[in-house]
Amino acid sequence: MIILGIGGILSDSAAAVLRDGELIAAVEESKLVRRGKNWDHRGRLPGKSIATCLELAGAKPEQVDAVAVARPLPGADFYLELRALFPSSRIAVVDHHQAHAASAYYPSPFDEATVLTLDRGGSFCCGSRWQATGARMTLDQEQYAPDSLCELYGRVTELLGFAANEDEHKVQWLSTAGDDRYKELFGEILNVTEAGPRIDRGFFGTERLDHGGFGPRFYERLGIDSGAGIAEPLRAHLAAGVQRAVEEAAVRMAGSGRNLCVAGGLALNALVVRALETSAKFENVFVQPDGGNSGTAIGAVLETWHGAYRQEKRVALATLCLGPSFAAEDIKHAIENCKLRYHYLLTVDEVVSTAVAQLNEHKIVAWMHGRMELGARALGNRSILASPLDPYSTENLNAYIKHREPFRKFAASVPAELASRYFEVGPNARWLATVGRVRPEWKEKFAAALMGDGLVRVHTVDRDEHPLYWRLLQAAGESTGLPVVYNTSFNLFGEPLVCTPRDALRSFYSSGIDSMLVGNFFLQK
């Protein structure tokens, strides 16, 4: 049985394929067309991601048993287009938050769980809570827009001069430098009850369309003139206020129990995930790492597998590396087409030792291997790497390569079995979906990656899931005594992760990256 999933039709579209109960492929359209996350695709089918997923599954459109589509949908013409492309396929439509919930619960390791979904408003609904057992989920309660945690978070994002619906991650990381002075204010605005937030809109001004739309009452509480710009010293404190109020609200809305699964746009906020993990309300927390709209493609196929087809077999999320990979011939063709010089490394040992040698020389290394990751986070297949032993590594990465704010720190990749030696972190670090703390004796070594009170982004690398990247980390440890490498996503200028060898070459030569390994091909500037 082949089920094609389509999600995020109106924002951040993606496709996924489930074949005989195994998740074979999942790819966002933006990575294939090389557009930013919020590019205007006007409700069109994600044609390239559909074609790519079917190719990875070795399937043709006429072999697809069902097309599972997550709401919201653009209109009747969309259905006609689906029918034309897949004339013999069953069409299954899945509600937006049901798809979010399915993407979180069904791949989890739990036989029963509470499922929490929170977003800005992918439909009229902006949040839901479910009770799940076995291969079934039952809706417990819903929240409705605009009483949305993410709506307030987006307003503060705009207030701080960033782009709402795009730069919320910047507010998250900026918040680690602030204190709690505004937490009570934002808690008052959210007005959270057991049923969810009931946002006090008296803090907004109907006549103001910019700066988050906050009104005189809000500015009076800040002690500044209405509509005035936010002074630099207050920015981190405002970010911290909304971040911590939202964390407390999410914990309250989740309730309590043994197991919790989380999805939706707010699940991409690693600090919220950590708050849920450490709240003591649940013993175990599992987060869908691609929690945004693109992840509903996975949720749609899983809900259709379990709901429409009544299948009991659960589908594991064995990896997020579900996109295309490229053969040596493809890489060689791209390099030679650009008339570039390269060294071809004959063995995996050479690839690893070359990368370690470059890192030991404090070089910034681009690293592209295997299948592309799903989601915005680089997990060792489309990464830019640096040595934590280089005192200028994060400064060089931020200032000369990524061109981004200094408060946005880089992840520390470490073999999963060695992580506890250096960090205190939970299992969601496998996906970079949470944050941890560095152990006191290692704070000085990882000072450049620290946020706030010893927080650090930790990426635990499993040997079976990422064998080559795991070998690199082990080799770095054998060479330097420290099996940790700083990792950030291989992308530039607001583009998504690189996908093809040509994408990698373009980003490499448009940046201050020193060297690059694409498969067995080694390039230097």
Structure write-up:
By secondary structure, the chain is an alpha/beta fold. Helix content is 33%, strand content 21%. It has 17 helices and 23 strands. The strands form five sheets. The protein has an eight-stranded mixed beta sheet, with helices on both faces. The protein has a five-stranded mixed beta sheet with strand order 3-2-1-4-5. A five-stranded mixed beta sheet has the order 8-7-6-11-12. A hairpin with a 2-residue loop joins β7 and β8. α4 packs across α11, α5 packs antiparallel against α9 and α9 crosses α10. The longest helix is centred in the middle third of the chain and has 23 residues. The mean pLDDT is 95.
Provide the descriptors you would attach to this structure in a database record.
single chain, 525 residues, alpha/beta, five-stranded mixed β-sheet, 17 helices, eight-stranded mixed β-sheet, globular, 23 strands
Adjacency order of strands in the biggest sheet:
13-23-22-14-15-21-16-20
Mean pLDDT equals 95
Distinct helical segment count: 17
- Using only C-alpha atoms, the radius of gyration works out to 23 Å
Low-pLDDT runs? none
Form type: globular
Report the end-to-end length measured between terminal Cα atoms.
Answer: 48 Å
Counting helices, strands and paired strands, the structural category is: alpha/beta
Oligomer: single chain
Relative helix content? 25-40%
Task: Kindly state the number of beta strands.
Answer: 23
> How would a crystallographer describe the biggest sheet?
8 strands, mixed
| Strand percent estimate | 15-25%
